[in-house]
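Methods: example folding runs. The two proteins below were folded one after another, and each record is reproduced exactly as written to the output file, sequence line first and structure-token line second.
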Amino acid sequence: MAAISILIFSVCLLMGGAVLAHLIGAASILSFVAADRARFLAAAPQRIIANIDLFSIMSMPLFILAGEIMNRAGVTKALVDLSMGLMARLKGGLGHVNILTSVFFAGISGSAMADAASVSNTLVPAMRKAGYSANYAGAITAASSVIGPIIPPSIIMIFYGALMNTSVAALFVAGILPGLFMAVALFATNAFLAHRYDHPAGERLPAREVFRRFVHALPATVIPVIILSGIVFGIMTPTEAAGLAVCCSIIAGMIYGNMNLRLLVESFERTAILSGSIFILLSAVAIFGYLAGLEKLPTLLAEMVIGFGFEGWKYLLLLNAVFLVAGMFLEVPIALALLVPLFVPAGIAMGADPIHLGVVLVVNLMLGIVTPPFGAALLVVSTVSGVPYWGIAKAAAPFLLMQVVVLLVLTFVPEISLFLPRLAGFIN
């Protein structure tokens, strides 16, 4: 009866506009009382501090800051110009440019929403002017934005690493091949659709102009290479790499001539807001995780799903379904905070690798943001570009289908995710 009362109370607060982090924390504390575990609340502050006082999680606000600075410092135009020089001459070239720009963005911001908004502002109008349908231009922009949090640096992977006490460096390295695999699948889909719908090819630029654009974009493109090389070869920790990324982003802004005090202040303000909201959520989840451990909820969940016959590959399919649906309705950090402590320990107990699961779950949640009816990336692209939401959603269906195929391959071929971490010595 107490549990039902807490559930009703939580739903009422949520419908009333309560902050979800506050709701999780309040519901968890009430659950301690309902389960006659109130005496254990004395240790809750210690559990909260233990959950957020991690060296690896310090990299999160630094990577957010680096992305905010670079997004404001004129990096977008340099990356788009380079992508144009490399891919525009192909049939359906602007679609390829869209995807390649997202790959470049992935190594800078690691944010699907920032990618979707920036590319919608620049490439969607260019594609429409070149003869692409507005729906197709919006669809490929939304579909390619999912690459952002898969290829490192990735704020979502840092969040997952904090929740599961898993190496962030290993997660970063594990995301490289899956992210590139996703990009190749999107390139192939765009090439097929370009021939089917006779999409135009762009202007073939002279080699000298392509080289000039490459040199101009070097300050932006070299940063992810330096960061990843440092992490892979053990020269830097993710936190040190994040600090270097901030320094490099400031230098890049100076090179492009857009760095000023106002830009820095805006970047710091936005970073403080985003980081604060994530840390509050982590604190609330720490209380929930503490109670889940006391009540042995992960063990009970594992026994329940095994009792229903969800073992091995069936459990992986169940995880995919749960996280894909969660990605459609919830913000990604919230979905991770709510579901990872419950579902991932059961998967690990069945023999799954936590790094492999982390990559698969990130891809799942990213596909949720391009899945109707509430796909967040679709909403962002529609809002920024002015293209109707359902038109974009319909045109994105072929890309989403291919991405689901990629997800299933990643799920059942863990070596794609684990090859580079094993090669780099992060796992045996």
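Second run, written to the same file directly after the first:
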Amino acid sequence: MKRIIFLILMGLLSIIMSACSSSSSKTTIIYPKEPPKDDLYDSSIINDESKWGTMNVHDPSIFKDGDWYYIFSTDVKVGGTPRAGIQVRKSKDLIHWQWVGYALDGVPKEAEDWTGATNLWAPDVTKIGDTYYLYYVASTFGTNQSFIGLATSKSIEGPWQDQGAVFKSQQGDEWNALDPNIVYAADGTMWMDFGSFFGGIYIVQLDPKTGKLMNNATPKLIARRSGADAIEGPYIIYNKQQKKYYLFTSFDSLFSDYNVRVSRSDNIDGPYVDFNGNLMTDTNVDSGTKILGSYKFDGNDGWIAPGHNSVLVDGNNYYIIHHARGEKDTNWPYLHVRKILWSDDGWPMVSPERYAGETEQQINKDEIIGKWEIIELDKNVNSEVTSTKIELLRNGKINTNDSKDHWEFSGKNTIKLYFYDPDHVQKGQYWVETAKIIPAWDWENWNPTLVFTGYDQTGTAIWGKMDKESK
């Protein structure tokens, strides 16, 4: 009798242990909640800024003030004449955005006299002591008759007092006084990077007492492209963990094939190099590591010409903030916020989906088995890139045309995809794509999912999204 009871108890224990083992094979993933749904191309609200939300956002610059995130952006208005003065929005979660108003009442006189501009572009905000500094741009489109000005306020929402010119340029100058970004070096010194098209991207030290150029300061070239190739919208951050400065710039046409590239340096004033060690001042190569471009996942229209970004460093979290144009009608620019992850060798990796409140967390290997959509952000293809489909099988194989293709997963939420291609790979016989996985919201199929972002061994950014059929 005792033996029978013992065997029964052992059997129950075995069942319990098996159940525990089975339940531990999957983790409880905390997915973001459903965000506000897109209502694109809504011409009925064109004349009511309070309803714009993320619509009519161009060249967004972000600044966190207390519990609020503020976006300052270029004066644009689809289907009408924009009011001049720098648009301002705010949010408490980077998801729901509300209209604040205009920072300035039109184009300041000195800027108007110099450029003839009818609206203002590409603002950036910083704070020194108890004073907010708003940098703005006036320019004659297609020329380097440009003006970077400064306004100050004791409140992030104004009123703002114009302080006149910070830097000006005109025909014949090697630089263009456009797209200012204020950045602080690790030693606390204050700098401004700026530039566009004419001559490239420059950096110059500022006097924190005035917010203007230091006495006798001369701009230094940090990035350039050959001929009339477009480079603009510079934005620099310092990553304390990597002890490096990262320069983000936008390449090509803001109307069609805009794309964001990144490079890094040990010093704030360069030299900046990309993933492959190319100097950003070398006009003989197509430098810059592309991390964002036009794309389309299955199930919805894509996004065209994403670019002119700022970057938010919020504690240990990084976000890229940029505009993008809807594929259906590219006249309409919208605000996008995306989470940035970091590769093990210190390169920023942009999420393929817009931010909806997701957090990095431990993912179990079993969770990623299934069908995925893959996008490769080839820097040689800056038109819209569409996704392809693969399936990650439980046996570690990738369900493709080659039986040698396989995948691996490590405990750091890192996935490696091995694609056999002995005729094209320079080192070894596989294309190896290394990426990190994070929960996200699938804006195309309107459900939570998993995504990954990373690079192959040549520095081509790769994106992945778990297919809705796998959920």
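Comment on the second run: The domain at 365-470 is CATH 2.40.128.10 (Lipocalin).
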